[in-house]
Design goal:
The chain is mostly helical. It has 20 helices and 2 strands. A two-stranded antiparallel ribbon has the order 1-2. α8 packs antiparallel against α17 and α14 runs parallel beside α17. The protein is globular. The C terminus is likely disordered.
Length: 517
């Protein structure tokens, strides 16, 4: 029995679709588990203790400011591994990973030292109300210092898996970690342990991920060799050139993601971070569809660029944007329309006041959905310098507006800064991508955006009417509200926003490859 050889465009399409589907399924499961963990932690620890955890986490290498310690190397590894894979150069892959791993070991030590300094001085910088919580904040920084020593090196193997487009194995590690993390959180917090134990469980989850990525990298590329002898100036130069600008973009991205928390923590009691985290997590949940589609785009774009396939890059931009919008619109609009009952059912009625800031945060989500694929393709094509400059400009705008509005508007003020900052730069990403691919804005809007927007409006109207009629108060009834509008939306998008060729390709990707003797 032999496998039928597929045309390159079908084989590539299958790969991107498979990666997107895997990311989507695991992302939804992780989202549900994470929602449970966050609600359990907030209810168990209380607003102030949970706010202390959020503050410490905002400086960690896994989810905070010090994630810039990877120096952009994860993106660089992913890009150059994809390029080397497209050329069949296995020796180059070993050079890239060995070089990145050596640098990340060094930056891990530096990040750990920074966190240890913060453990000493943090209580003097932020509004932490009691001595016990100030001590807990210091110990959390010590725990996250330990995390830096293994989490950062693990990114070299994560970048390898991304470049090889082994998303099934990445998600196997992520899903296993999420399940074990949820069980451990319930066991630890449910037996009366506090925020320090919660931080220890979080760090243990990062260790599990780093080891898992290393194991999966070995299974995915048995020829991979890790050796100091493979580190050379010639090998480092292109990686450093790409990763240098990726690092600039990463700095802007990390400041962007964490500045709101630090601005709030310096201007108000630390307990306000719990309310912000609720709004931020709902926005992040609505953004999951973006990760489903974008994670596979950078290595796919780099691979297509190596094969000099501009036509397929145009199709990737148009279809990727349309599919991203098709996934993002219903999730975002549903969270906006149902924000108040969702927050009350999720974490309790005392947080109902966060429905307004949450809706504002979700407006930002609508803005970024149209530009995220263009932004990701630019990185895959190596236009990291321009992306970094745009991101820096957006971050500066965000920072100025957030500082100006935090005192009069509180949480809403920093969210407005985020919305305005990206709203100004999003069209720039789209314009640059269109220019590089010799496409007109009219074609992009007509083929990528308009087919989905119409059905998004229909979805919003039906959902609002259903919610008004049912008045949902439990998570199960909130989910049930989305079913009628969701069915209409899916059928409408599949029938009218996708061409017959796309529907045929979709069903073709779902069907197994037939084998012939």
């Amino acid at each position: 029995m032999t496998t039928v050889d597929l045309p390159p465009e079908i084989a590539h399409g299958r790969r991107v679709f498979r990666n997107t589907l895997i990311s989507g399924v695991v992302g939804v499961l992780s989202l549900l588990i994470n929602f449970f963990v966050v609600a359990f932690a907030i209810r168990t620890l209380g607003m102030t203790s949970y706010g202390v955890f959020v503050l410490a986490l905002s400086f960690s290498v896994s989810a905070g400011y010090l994630s810039i310690s990877d120096l952009g190397l994860q993106a660089g590894v992913s890009r150059f591994i994809a390029d080397a894979d497209g050329r069949g150069d296995r020796e180059r892959m070993s050079q890239v990973v060995s070089s990145a791993l050596a640098i990340l070991l060094g930056t891990g030590v530096c990040a750990a030292l920074v966190l240890l300094v913060l453990a000493v001085v943090a209580s003097h910088l932020f509004h932490v109300p009691t001595e016990s919580l100030r001590t807990a904040l210091g110990l959390l920084f010590v725990l996250f210092a330990g995390e830096a020593l293994f989490s950062l090196p693990g990114l070299a193997f994560y970048g390898l898996l991304q470049g090889l487009q082994r998303y099934g194995r990445i998600k196997a590690v992520d899903m296993s970690r999420q399940l074990l993390y949820a069980v451990a959180v319930v066991a630890v917090l449910g037996t009366g342990h506090g925020v320090i134990a919660f931080g220890a469980v979080t760090v243990a989850g990062s260790l599990f991920s780093a080891l898992g990525y290393a194991l999966m990298a070995r299974l995915s590329c048995p020829e991979l060799r890790i050796s100091p002898h493979l580190i050379s100036r010639a090998g480092l130069r292109p990686l450093a050139g790409f990763s240098g600008w990726a690092f600039v973009a990463a700095i802007s991205g990390v400041i962007w993601a964490q500045m709101d928390k630090v601005i709030l923590a310096t201007a108000a009691p630390v307990r306000v971070l719990t309310g912000y985290d609720i709004a931020n997590r709902l926005q992040s949940a609505a953004s999951y569809p973006l990760s489903f589609t974008t994670q596979a785009v950078v290595p796919a774009a780099a691979n297509l660029s190596a094969m000099e396939s501009t036509v397929r890059l145009r199709a990737l931009l148009i279809r990727g944007t349309r599919y991203t919008l098709a996934l993002a619109f219903p999730a975002t609009l549903a969270a906006m329309i149902l924000a108040r009952p969702l927050i009350i059912a999720w974490v309790g009625g005392q947080y109902a006041y966060m429905s307004g800031p949450t809706e504002l945060f979700l407006v930002y989500q609508l803005v970024i959905s149209s530009a995220t694929i263009a932004h990701t393709i630019l990185i895959g094509l190596g236009r990291v310098r321009t992306v970094a400059l745009y991101a820096t400009a957006a971050t500066g705008i965000n920072l100025v507006i957030s500082i100006a509005l935090v005192h009069p508007l509180g949480i809403s003020g920093v969210i407005i800064g985020t919305l305005v900052g990206f709203g100004i730069t999003a069209p720039l990403y789209i314009r640059l991508a269109l220019n590089l691919l010799s496409m007109g804005i009219g074609q992009f809007v007509r083929e990528a955006i308009l087919p989905v927007v119409v059905w998004a409006l229909v979805f919003a109207a039906l959902l609002a009417a259903t919610a008004w009629f049912i008045q949902p108060a439990q998570l199960i009834t909130i989910a049930a509200c989305c079913i009628p509008a969701g069915i209409v939306y899916v059928l409408g998008v599949a029938r009218f926003a996708m061409s017959a060729e796309e529907r045929g390709s979709l069903f073709g990707f779902l069907r197994p490859v037939r084998r012939v003797p």
